[in-house]
Amino acid sequence: MNRIDQKFAELRKKNQKGFIAYICAGDPDLDTTAELAVALEKAGVDILELGIPFSDPLADGVVNQEASQRALSRGATVDKVLKTIQKIRRMECTMPIVLYTYYNPIFHYGLEKFIHDAKQSGVDGFLNLELPPEEAGGGERAMKKHELHTIFLVAPTSSEERIRKISKKASGFIYYVSREGVTGERSSMENSIESMVRTIRKHSRLPVVVGFGISKPEHVRDVAKVADAVVVGSSIVKKIGEIGKKPNLIADISKHVKSLVEPLRRPKTTK
After folding, report:
1. Which of 24, 39, 130, 180 is deepest in the core (most CB within 10 A)?
2. 145 within some domain
3. How many domains does the chain have?
4. One digit per residue, pLDDT tens: the chain, 271 residues?
5. Does residue 143 lie within any of the structural domains?
6. Active-site residue flag, 49
7. Is 57 part of any domain?
8. Can you tell me the distance from the alpha carbon of 57 to that of 142, in angstroms, rounded to the nearest whole number?
9. Which one from 46, 60, 117, 228 is the annotated catalytic residue?
């Protein structure tokens, strides 16, 4: 069974919601990425969303764009990212890893080779920011062969018919983008999240996760009331950029992530 499926089954058994963290591979460097992955799992992260740095990340806000540029300037490549994931697995990190990527790096690497090598490295699924379900057929057979999940985005502007089509192609989980525009922190959450998650559930039995803009413990708490898992990226990436390669990076990021995970782990009170 794919590690993503195992994780959501485990969370359901515990009656808990999942926490997904995003970081950009290679920021501040690839060795630190491996150390961060291990630390994030210990801090309570259920699934790691690992970004492949790209020179033109159109769906990302300034914080994640800058992280990509830092990683590229320090020599991160697709091949090196996959080798870093191998290192993470050797460090006995067992949480699912989803590669967050644009199509251009995959195209240049070679689609089927990329899927094969990613599986061998310890990847569990892909979230391709530019790939609609209509154009996902090229790698679909290879993904199924290697038991990797293809995760698609649902936007606030997606029609119900569009959600139905996405649900037919998706595996692992469905990622609901909680606002229009790019990634980034914000002060409040959209009011439409609950109704959109409800619509997605009409068409899919997959877990529904919500991301983009979630940056505070209260955001995590509120979104977890309706979603199966919550994704936090920019607030973590921003702190990585601020701290850089200082010795306190791992400890400070772990502390920040624990504060975000904590609302999901509080025992439920009974009246």
Report:
1. 24
2. no
3. 1
4. 899 999 999 999 999 999 999 999 999 999 999 999 999 999 999 999 999 999 998 888 899 999 999 999 999 999 999 999 999 999 999 999 999 999 999 999 999 999 999 999 999 999 998 888 887 767 888 899 999 999 999 999 999 999 999 999 999 999 999 865 444 444 444 568 999 999 999 999 999 999 988 989 999 999 999 999 999 999 999 999 999 999 999 999 999 999 999 999 876 544 4
5. no
6. yes
7. yes
8. 25
9. 60
CATH number at residue 191: 3.20.20.70
Could you identify the residue written with the tokens 């293809």?
Answer: 150
C-alpha closest to that of 254 among 4, 18, 40: 40
Asked if the structure places residue 74 within a domain, the reply is: yes
Query: Is residue 160 among the annotated active site residues?
Result: no
Rounded distance, CA 37 to CA 51, Å? 12
Annotated active-site residue in 5, 27, 49, 222: 49
Distance CA 99, CA 120 (A): 14
Write the burial class of residue 266 (CB in 10 Å: 0-12 exposed, 13-18 middle, 19+ buried).
exposed
pTM of the predicted model as reported, rounded to 2 decimal places: 0.93
Task: Give the residue ranges of DSSP H helices in 74-228.
Answer: 78-90, 103-109, 111-121, 137-145, 160-169, 193-203, 217-224
